Amino acid sequence: xxxxxxxxxxxxxxxxxxxxxxxxxxxxxxxxxxxxxxxxxxxxxxxxxxxxxxxxxxxxxxxxxxxxxxxxxxxxxxxxxxxxxxxxxxxxxxxxxxxxx
Amino acid sequence: xxxxxxxxxxxxxxxxxxxxxxxxxxxxxxxxxxxxxxxxxxxxxxxxxxxxxxxxxxxxxxxxxxxxxxxxxxxxxxxxxxxxxxxxxxxxxxxxxxxxxxxxxxxxxxxxxxxxxxxxxxxxxxxxxxxxxxxxxxxxxxxxxxxxxxxxxxxxxxxxxxxxxxxxxxxxxxxxx
Lengths: 101, 177
Description:
The complex is a heterodimer.
Chain A: H1 25-34, H2 41-55, H3 62-66, H4 73-79, H5 84-92
Chain B: H1 2-8, E1 25-30, H2 35-50, E2 54-59, H3 91-94, H4 99-113, H5 119-128, E3 132-136, H6 137-142, E4 154-158, H7 160-166, E5 172-176
Parallel strand pairs in B: 1-2, 1-5, 2-3, 3-4
């Protein structure tokens, strides 16, 4: 029953959390599991960084994540395979990124 | 019913809807060495990788300039023979010595403002994301370029036949620039 979130938070049609403040770690783990990702410490570091940048109203792109000092681009792709910025943003409970880079 | 519909909306759309046939791989052929053409190729390759789409790049003819250690970060935009560049500007003016370099500098500066990486960094990003970059053998022979002339991320110098092999598999699109 991976189609139904055990923790029903309001999301948009693509599954991005509507209210960034409602985010919980349990919810993040559940969304990550839908992508076959088990969150490790490194994942959490990235997610926290993304949330922090969102709080600072920084427009995110892959390059910025690569320069974050937390992961390089290669590690970022390894942590969140199949579209790292979109997937990590969704798990982090922040809006879908709009960057082309 | 409505409640169920609301809940199922939370399902992540991983690879698009099932019965649609998503693009799985792109092979982007870059045959031009102008700043804007090279960036079009790089943005599309990187954009594909960001979406979880496999990306291969094949640089040929003047496109090879973009992957040489010497010129990758010094590409120019054409100010002559480019009607969309500053419409109304007389060709004689656009052709003045240094004008093209100046225009290219201005364009690069605008791209810096948008945080668009320089060519070498862009290629590193694509490589780190699992994209693969190749040079065309025929063009490399023609311009007397060897493996060591190319950026380290360039995987190999290959024939046109090898290039088509890169595009194998369902859901591959070939894009020519």
